[in-house]
């Protein structure tokens, strides 16, 4: 078993880390404060585009791109999951970095969908400006009125009408829709309620400016609006787009959703590992620089054990995610189904616990905005729901684990 990252990954990790240290970290706190106090917090601060331009100049751009499949060579040869994973970890240390490098969700997932499933025209119209960072996108699946953990429940509709598709319904938690550059919505709607449960839904590319699309409100995640990106509740009323905006074909949404999620979960999890590392690093600094009861904080009570447990938990989680990345690269999603769900359960919980420990050791300061810990905790907590709640992923793991035993049980009966 090989534990070293490849030379290419190491080189990129070093350059990305250096860029974050020298270009992003010095301005990040100021930039968040400026966003919060701006007359319009939904207008991105100008320095953001400047950082993007610098990152791009240095070739630190779209590093999430997967290894090119036939027909996609013109969009660049990306990295295998095992090579991108450590880069995602480094970018996770900063809330801004994934955006600066054009490697943020949900744009990355939407770009992968377009790469893999888009027609040449769809790629030209939407993928190219997304890869350029000229526009942003949202993924509109979850609905306020149905339990969306079960994606077969989605009740918004996408109905073929002559040469058009007509869309009606309401979505929420559409991440990224608050951004003024968000021009593309990847919408999932029900087309044929009589079809097999996994063949009822269709994915459609909807320009945000289409008449009938309305952002009803932006939702806070535990009091944070995540400006300038945000999460929206969006209504679709008789929205009409050409049938050529359908992805792959009517009733093919589940196939696309499956293909979209494997690498995306590795990215989310590695970013959270980076965030947990940052929380541990802040804990070590704080715990060795503050004194109470005549000792550094780290030497009080069970704090050393908590630090050791955090290190063990982070390292365990990283190994599991890297193994998942390796399986995705070598066996595809079908060979990594259980692991993709395992990391989706294990990593947000681990990060939530480590960050919670860091908050506690920071005392009152840990809950303030003077440290990035409160926002980090919210991020980890949200990831226990976003992309499917823990329970759904545990069910996947248990189902795969039990399958041969239940088959024997049924045979024996
Ligand atoms: C910050 C954030 C960003 C998001 N971004 C997006 C986005 O960009 N696009 C998008 O479409 N959606 C997005 N979501 C939505 C997210 O994917 C859904 O919230 C999630 O899939 C759960 O759906 P639900 O909220 O309808 O919960 P429900 O389906 O109502 O489930 C509620 C609870 O029921 C329990 N439950 C459900 N199923 C099971 C089960 N099988 N076994 C045991 N218990 C179960 C769980 O405790 C679950 O949390 C985002 C959510 C958050 C918080």
UniProtKB/TrEMBL annotation:
<dbReference type="InterPro" id="IPR050741">
    <property type="entry name" value="Acyl-CoA_dehydrogenase"/>
</dbReference>
<dbReference type="InterPro" id="IPR036250">
    <property type="entry name" value="AcylCo_DH-like_C"/>
</dbReference>
<dbReference type="InterPro" id="IPR037069">
    <property type="entry name" value="AcylCoA_DH/ox_N_sf"/>
</dbReference>
<keyword id="KW-0285">Flavoprotein</keyword>
<feature type="domain" description="Acyl-CoA dehydrogenase/oxidase N-terminal">
    <location>
        <begin position="10"/>
        <end position="133"/>
    </location>
</feature>
<dbReference type="Pfam" id="PF00441">
    <property type="entry name" value="Acyl-CoA_dh_1"/>
</dbReference>
<dbReference type="GO" id="GO:0005737">
    <property type="term" value="C:cytoplasm"/>
</dbReference>
<protein>
    <submittedName>
        <fullName>Acyl-CoA dehydrogenase</fullName>
    </submittedName>
</protein>
<dbReference type="Pfam" id="PF02770">
    <property type="entry name" value="Acyl-CoA_dh_M"/>
</dbReference>
<keyword id="KW-0274">FAD</keyword>
<dbReference type="GO" id="GO:0033539">
    <property type="term" value="P:fatty acid beta-oxidation using acyl-CoA dehydrogenase"/>
</dbReference>
<feature type="domain" description="Acyl-CoA dehydrogenase/oxidase C-terminal">
    <location>
        <begin position="254"/>
        <end position="399"/>
    </location>
</feature>
<dbReference type="Pfam" id="PF02771">
    <property type="entry name" value="Acyl-CoA_dh_N"/>
</dbReference>
<dbReference type="InterPro" id="IPR046373">
    <property type="entry name" value="Acyl-CoA_Oxase/DH_mid-dom_sf"/>
</dbReference>
<dbReference type="InterPro" id="IPR013786">
    <property type="entry name" value="AcylCoA_DH/ox_N"/>
</dbReference>
<feature type="domain" description="Acyl-CoA oxidase/dehydrogenase middle">
    <location>
        <begin position="138"/>
        <end position="239"/>
    </location>
</feature>
<comment type="subunit">
    <text>Homodimer.</text>
</comment>
<keyword id="KW-0560">Oxidoreductase</keyword>
<dbReference type="InterPro" id="IPR009075">
    <property type="entry name" value="AcylCo_DH/oxidase_C"/>
</dbReference>
<comment type="similarity">
    <text>Belongs to the acyl-CoA dehydrogenase family.</text>
</comment>
<dbReference type="InterPro" id="IPR006091">
    <property type="entry name" value="Acyl-CoA_Oxase/DH_mid-dom"/>
</dbReference>
<dbReference type="GO" id="GO:0003995">
    <property type="term" value="F:acyl-CoA dehydrogenase activity"/>
</dbReference>
<dbReference type="GO" id="GO:0050660">
    <property type="term" value="F:flavin adenine dinucleotide binding"/>
</dbReference>
<dbReference type="InterPro" id="IPR009100">
    <property type="entry name" value="AcylCoA_DH/oxidase_NM_dom_sf"/>
</dbReference>
């Amino acid at each position: 078993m090989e534990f070293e990252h490849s030379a290419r990954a190491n080189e990129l990790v070093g350059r990305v880390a250096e860029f974050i240290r020298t270009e992003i970290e010095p301005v990040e706190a100021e930039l968040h404060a400026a966003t919060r106090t701006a007359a319009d917090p939904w207008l991105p601060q100008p320095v953001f585009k400047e950082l993007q331009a610098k990152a791009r100049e240095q070739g630190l751009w779209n590093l999430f791109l997967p290894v090119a499949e036939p027909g996609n060579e013109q969009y660049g040869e990306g990295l295998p999951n095992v090579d991108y994973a450590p880069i995602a970890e480094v970018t996770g240390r900063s809330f801004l970095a994934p955006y600066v490098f054009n490697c943020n969700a949900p744009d990355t997932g939407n770009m992968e969908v377009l790469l893999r499933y888009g027609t040449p025209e769809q790629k030209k119209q939407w993928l190219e400006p997304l890869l350029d960072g000229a526009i942003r996108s949202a993924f509109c699946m979850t609905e306020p009125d149905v339990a969306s953990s079960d994606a077969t429940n989605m009740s918004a509709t996408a109905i073929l009408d002559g040469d058009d598709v007509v869309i009606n319904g309401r979505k929420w938690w559409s991440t990224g829709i608050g951004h003024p550059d968000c021009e593309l919505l990847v919408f999932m709607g029900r087309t044929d309620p009589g079809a097999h449960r996994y063949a009822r839904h269709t994915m459609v590319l909807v320009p945000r400016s289409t008449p009938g699309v309305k952002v009803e409100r932006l939702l806070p995640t535990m009091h944070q609006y995540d400006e300038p990106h945000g999460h929206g509740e969006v209504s679709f009323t008789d929205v009409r787009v050409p049938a050529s905006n359908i992805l792959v074909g009517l009733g093919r949404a589940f196939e696309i959703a499956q293909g979209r999620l494997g690498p995306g979960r590795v990215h989310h999890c590695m970013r959270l590992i980076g965030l947990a590392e940052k929380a541990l690093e802040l804990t070590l600094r704080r715990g060795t620089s503050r004194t109470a009861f005549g000792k550094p904080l780290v030497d009080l009570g069970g704090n050393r054990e908590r630090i050791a447990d955090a290190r063990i938990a982070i390292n365990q989680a990283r190994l599991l995610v890297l193994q998942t990345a390796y399986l995705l690269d070598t066996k595809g999603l079908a060979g990594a189904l259980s692991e993709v769900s395992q990391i989706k359960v294990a990593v947000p919980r681990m990060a939530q616990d480590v960050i919670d420990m860091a908050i506690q050791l920071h005392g009152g300061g840990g809950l303030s905005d003077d440290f990035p810990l409160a926002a980090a905790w919210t991020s980890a907590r949200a990831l226990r729901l976003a992309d499917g709640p823990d329970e759904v992923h545990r069910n996947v793991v248990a189902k795969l684990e039990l399958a041969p035993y239940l088959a024997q049980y049924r045979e024996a009966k």
